Model the fold of this input.
Amino acid sequence: MTPTSRSSYHHGGLRQAVLDAALDVIAADGPGALSLRDLARRAGVSHAAPAHHFKDRTGLLTALATEGYGLLAEALAAAPELRERGVRYVRFAVEHPAHFQVMFQPDLLRADDPDLLAAKERASAELRAGVADLTDVPDPRTAGIAAWSLAHGFATLLLTHNVTGALGDRDPEEYFRSLTGLLFTGQLPPEDEGKRE
Done:
């Protein structure tokens, strides 16, 4: 380890270095491949250093999920309305696939962690805010779950390459906008209708 990296680790850089190494492992091999000892090696620190910050593997995964929910809340807050919040959700999954894998596996996390609970609530509030502007919706909660299911399901199918053939060379965000049009209006945009014939 260089003196510069030692200095940055002393000031909190170690925690982020371990989180970044964990994201790389998860993106390549999934959360099951995580080991604190391996992450310490990747970060160039003693094998005990990650445990100082996270205690154990569950603590590390909880920290990653917390970070992910915070990033998701920020992404959703930047969108003006429900459809675009869905697009931002899909974009988040594509840009942060390792976070996305961990966030929705509660058996990997400390469910009662206060930071995790606060970050989840922030992201949930942003999801609910997208539904608040809908008119003529008899049950906003059900509408919110339907919207979340569409965005989450599409993002999951996209990340697992189950819609690669259907997408072809089309932009996933534009394709998602088409799906929401089909769901909420019963019609595909004209370019999609032509492709079905």
Q: What stands out?
A: Residues 15 and 52 are 9 Å apart (CA to CA). The two ends are 61 Å apart (CA to CA). The chain is about 75% helix and 0% strand. Residues 3-29 form the longest helix (27 residues).
